[in-house]
Structures are given as structure tokens and as C-alpha cells.
Design a protein that fits this description.
alpha+beta; nine-stranded antiparallel sheet; five-stranded mixed sheet; globular
Length: 445
């Protein structure tokens, strides 16, 4: 299977300078967008300077990598934008898929019209980044997501084709990180002064050991020494990507994952929010964590997906309980439903509202679902009749799974599962279940 997807844009994104105001046009791409409008949003930005700095930081993140070669880092990635429900969200990943970032333009951050709602890729080219860098606080900027059909064309009337390689792990990470964010809880709220002090304690260079966010006497710092209530941070040097934004923020909130598998840092700037999530270690990408795998064991009926696409709109809050009642889904499966829909790229997560929101990634569902090799291997084990259930009394399952020259034993008891394979021995379930556990769970549905 190819390690990259290729997509193209009809136009290049650009910032056009005008006598009274500037206009920012962002070219779009989608595999699934069905609407007739070629533009999602059109209107003025109320905080263009701050947004430009957030978008530049987002661009720096999607061009960065913490475990790849310089050649691999040179490949450009383009962010995903969701427009609808009076909100615009830009999101992206580092090339290594270990850093996730999202810029939310809230209702007070713009004065414009949503011509259509949806999710798409946007072209983040270097000339546009250079133009954003030149914006001043007094500048007026009109943002257009997509290319409006009347009077807004590529300079000179030419059409520019641009093909961009996108690693498949980038898409896998986007579906996994939402689940981690949903399992995070707010730990600290830091003022601007506390943030400035905190970031002065960042260690120099690449850090290979764990650091901790600790509070001492009302001040916060990064320390290699663990203490009570400390938050574990692997690859703390990745936080340097946020340094340009610290002098501009109002406050910052810190959300550690319940099992310290990630941390999310939310920076607030008036009507803008910048979310920044990092994986447990700098060499571990969200794409390989496997948090979404168990959610994909049970299929989501096609009529549920059709109902979501028919009645949901971009950035709309998703109430799983109401959705379950409307469609006759067992309420005991509500939590699993949201995880499954997130793993399919149909939901994002908003930490401030503590809720999921509808946004369909601009890729076909079968493409997203095909990006999980462990799940595919589990299905292959079932198709080849290599899974034998030894016992199942409703609370404990024991099974044998045929491996290469060996039989693996899988034990599933209530919320725990273990296997005798090498993968489980190395990871102890921290990075999701092995293919043998997945196969047994799917067989016992």
C-alpha cells in the first residue's frame, strides 16, 4: 500500500493587497465535498494579526518532524479547515504525526458569511506564509476559504495544478488524537505571566528524558524531577513551537490524558483558541497508538452515516445520546459510538465545551478505514479461521490464535485483555490492542 496520498488544487492560496483592505484566499481540496459552492466562508477577520501568527505557527508545526530525516521533513503538508456553525477551525499534524495543532476562529473572531459548511484541505504555500508574516495589527483582512466563483480568480486567469504528498499516518493521527483529547481533563489554568515564566524553564536542545510540569508556590516550571500532581511530558522540547505565541496570549489551559499518553495545551487570544497536543514521546506518533482500533471492531451501520451526513453540519455539537435515541441505538453503546465515529474521521473534540463536533475529514471513509494494518490483519486471521474460542462464560474469554509457528493465547476479562505475543509484551496495551486481541474481540461480538 502506498505510504502517501496525492491531492491537487485548482488554484494557489494567496494574500492580495488592496488599497483599503487585504484579501486572503485559501484554495481547497476534498474527496467527498458534494456542495455546489466553491467557497465555504467569506468575510473580515476581527483579529487578523493574531490569527496570522497562529496560522504561521500551525504551518511551522505541519512542516516539522521530531523523528525523521531532513529530506522527509522537506515535504510540505497542508492543513485541514472546517467551516460552519459560525466557527472556522484549522488543524494539522507534524510530519512525524506526534504533534497536533488546531486554530479555532470563534464567532467573535470574524464578520462574514458562511456560504456553505464543510471540511476540506487548504493550500498553505510559501508566498502566502510570507504575506501573512507581513501583516500588521492595523491591517484589514478578508478571509475566503475556497475560491469564490464570481470575480475572484487566479492572477492572470491561469489555473495552477499543485500536487502534494500526504503521509497516510497523518490521517490516522487525526482520527486518533480526538479520542485522546476526549479522555483528557483540565489540570491547570496559567496566566500570561505564568506562561512567560514557564517557557523560560524549557531545557535546551533535544530532550530524550521525561520532564514534568510542576507547580511551586504559584509558579509553574518544567522539571526532570517528578513531584506530587506533576504532569508527565515526553519530548518536552516540542513545546518550543509555541514560543512565538506566548507573548500574545491571554491565558493557557493544560489538559493531560488520563493515562499520561498525551498532553494538550490550549492558548487563548480573545476570540481565537490555539490547541496543541503532543504524544507520550517525541518518537511516537498518534498514528501508531491504536487508540481507535477497538472502536472500529464493530461496524457502524450505513444508515447511521447517511443520517449524520443528511442532518449534521460542520462544527455542530454532536450529542451521542440524542443520536442514539433517534436511531434506536443501545444507550450502553453511546461512548463506543462516539469513538467509532471519531475513528472514522466524522467527529472532532472541543475541550472547552467537553463535547464532540461533526466534521468529516475530506477523504472517503473506505480510505480512512483501510489505514489500520492491525485491524486488517485481525480480519485476515478471522477469514483464515485462525481464531479458536476455548471458553467464554460471559465475563471471561480464552482463545487460541494461530501465529507463525506458534499458538498465541488471548485472555479477555471485563475491561482488560492480554496476549502472549511479542507486541503485547513490548507495549502492555499502552498503544492499543494487538491483532490477536482484536480478532478475538471481533469474533465474540
Amino acid at each position: 500500500m502506498s505510504e502517501v496520498l496525492t491531492y491537487s488544487y485548482r488554484y494557489s492560496s494567496e494574500l492580495r493587497k488592496g488599497a483599503k483592505e487585504d484579501e486572503l484566499f485559501m484554495s481547497q481540496y476534498s474527496e467527498v465535498q458534494k456542495g455546489n459552492q466553491s467557497c465555504f466562508f467569506w468575510g473580515k477577520l476581527t483579529e487578523p494579526y493574531t490569527l496570522s501568527r497562529c496560522l504561521i505557527t500551525l504551518n511551522n508545526i505541519v512542516q516539522s518532524s521530531f523523528n525523521l530525516s531532513p529530506f522527509e521533513r522537506s515535504l510540505m503538508k497542508d492543513p485541514i479547515v472546517t467551516a460552519g456553525n459560525d466557527t472556522i477551525r484549522f488543524e494539522g499534524f507534524s510530519h512525524c504525526a506526534g504533534v497536533y495543532a488546531r486554530v479555532d476562529v470563534l464567532p467573535g473572531g470574524h464578520d462574514g458569511e458562511f456560504l456553505e459548511n464543510g471540511t476540506t484541505n487548504v493550500d498553505f504555500n510559501q508566498p502566502m506564509i510570507n504575506a501573512l508574516s507581513g501583516l500588521r495589527k492595523a491591517d484589514n483582512v478578508v478571509l475566503s476559504v475556497g475560491q469564490k466563483s464570481v470575480g475572484l480568480h487566479q492572477k492572470g486567469g491561469s489555473v495552477v495544478e499543485r500536487k502534494v504528498p500526504l503521509p497516510v499516518k497523518w490521517i490516522k493521527g487525526l482520527t486518533t488524537v480526538q479520542i485522546y483529547m476526549a479522555q483528557a481533563e483540565q489540570a491547570y489554568v496559567l496566566s500570561k505571566m505564568q506562561c512567560l515564566h514557564l517557557f523560560r524553564t524549557l531545557p535546551k536542545g533535544t530532550v530524550k528524558t521525561d520532564y514534568y510540569l510542576v507547580e511551586r508556590g504559584g509558579k509553574f516550571l518544567f522539571s526532570p524531577v517528578k513531584s506530587n500532581s506533576a504532569i508527565l511530558i515526553g519530548g518536552v522540547h516540542r513545546l518550543r513551537l509555541l514560543e512565538p505565541l506566548i507573548p500574545l496570549l491571554d491565558q493557557m489551559k493544560v489538559y493531560p490524558h488520563k493515562e499520561m499518553q498525551s498532553t494538550t495545551w490550549q492558548l487563548y487570544f480573545g476570540n481565537l483558541v490555539f490547541s496543541f497536543s503532543i504524544s507520550r514521546d517525541h518518537w511516537r506518533g498518534f498514528s501508531g497508538e491504536g487508540a481507535a482500533l477497538e472502536s472500529l471492531i464493530e461496524d457502524v451501520p450505513e444508515d447511521f452515516i447517511e443520517a449524520m451526513e443528511k442532518f449534521s453540519y460542520a462544527n455542530q455539537s454532536f450529542n451521542a445520546t440524542l443520536f442514539s435515541v433517534d436511531h434506536g441505538i443501545d444507550l450502553n453503546k453511546v461512548d463506543n459510538l462516539t469513538s467509532r465515529l471519531s475513528a472514522m474521521g466524522l467527529l472532532g473534540f472541543d475541550l472547552d465545551g467537553n463535547e464532540f463536533f461533526y466534521r468529516r475529514l475530506p477523504y472517503k471513509l473506505n480510505r480512512i478505514l483501510s489505514l489500520n494494518p492491525r485491524l486488517k490483519e485481525a480480519i485476515k486471521l478471522l477469514e483464515n479461521n485462525k481464531v479458536e474460542i476455548v471458553s467464554n462464560d460471559g465475563s471471561r474469554v480464552e482463545a487460541k490464535v494461530v501465529g507463525t509457528g506458534v499458538h498465541h493465547v488471548v485472555i479477555i476479562e471485563e475491561a482488560s485483555a492480554r496476549c502472549t505475543c511479542t507486541w503485547y509484551a513490548q507495549n502492555q496495551g499502552e498503544r492499543g490492542p494487538c491483532k490477536h486481541i482484536l480478532a478475538v474481540k471481533k469474533k465474540t461480538l
